[in-house]
Amino acid sequence: MARRTLIRAGFLFCVVAGLGLPASLWAKDISLTQVAPGVYVRPGTVQDATAANDDAIANIGFIVGHDAVAVIDPGGSAGDGARLRAQIKATTGLPIRYLIYTHVHPDHVLGAVAFADDHPLVVAHARFAAAWAERGAYYRQGLARILGGDLAQAGAKTGDALPPAQAVDTAADIDLGGRVLHLAAYGAAHTDSDLTVYDGQTRTLWAGDLLFQDRIPALDGSLTGWLTVLGQLKALPAVRVVPGHGPAQLPWPAGAVDEERYLTTLARDVRALLKNGGDIDAAATTVARSERGRWKLFEAYNGRNAITAFKQLEWEDPS
User: Fold this and answer.
1) What's the pTM?
2) CATH second-level architecture of 33-255?
3) Average pLDDT of the residues of the chain
4) Are 252 and 241 contacting, i.e. CB atoms less than 8 angstroms apart?
5) What's the rounded mean pLDDT across residues 251-280?
6) Contact by Cβ (8 Å): 57, 47
7) CB-based burial of residue 51 (10 Å sphere; 0-12 exposed, 13-18 middle, 19+ buried)?
């Protein structure tokens, strides 16, 4: 059974206050689930970013080896990252030697600033740096508006990415001491910078946002590419997966069923619309409506997904 641990406000006051973060963040609890020996996940809330949730909406966490710790996604804001760092320090005295980004989205990345004093080796997809250069300022400004307060205060809350020092083109291994993590980079799928982490010791796959459960998937890369990557991931010998959003863990490959159904439905409905001469406006209101009721935040994202899919598939060779 997964072991759940809690870090209370008193300890957080000591650690987070030392980072100079706003007092409003000191009293938040952070819970972890140990999904396998040495593999810890902080599940995010199934919401969009708000001032109340501090953009702590993604599944983030860390893996502990004999010699070092690897953080897998540092969180969605400076406070989110600081609370995760506090929990790591409460769990182990080993150094935080690695920080891994699973992709470029801000809810997985902006907490990295909380780990700057650890001087970790930052590892990401080879496309991450370019994607962050294109989008990073926009992401920070958007979150600052959500978190509110004056500009300086909101900027301090928002956080930032740390620049990658190791870029993964296809695959790489990280040795935590008696525990080797296998990293794999993919072509465009959820985004164009998706990276997974596989812990062979516990047969745990950390999928990032290549896998959603409960919260509707968000298409920011390639629909057909995403379905292809899911097929590749299903071939791995993992027994459990950590999704980017949803519960802390799911069985694998059974945990892919809902997302694969949604993405397949999205592709099928768009192709049918195109065949019948439908336009992009119709896509936004008609595609994948059979999935309504199965996903949280469906109305906020399904129309966008349908429009993105329409733009991609309208140039597809029907033969």
Assistant:
1) 0.90
2) 4-Layer Sandwich (3.60)
3) 90
4) yes
5) 97
6) yes
7) middle
Strand ranges for 22-159 from DSSP E: 30-36, 39-42, 60-64, 69-72, 96-100, 121-125
Query: Which tokens sit at 263?
Result: 């993405």
Q: What residues does each domain of the chain span?
A: 33-255
Task: Tell me which amino acid residue 145 is.
Answer: R
Name the one residue in this structure whose structure tokens are 């010791």.
201
What is d(CA 164, CA 162) in angstroms, rounded to the nearest whole number?
6
Residue type, 9: A
What is the C-alpha to C-alpha distance for residues 45 and 207, in angstroms, rounded to an integer?
17
Residue 302, H or E segment: helix 298-313
Contact 99, 65 (CB under 8 A): no
Burial 149-186 (b: 16+ CB within 10 A, else e): eeeeebbbbbbbbbebeebbeeebebebeebebebbbb
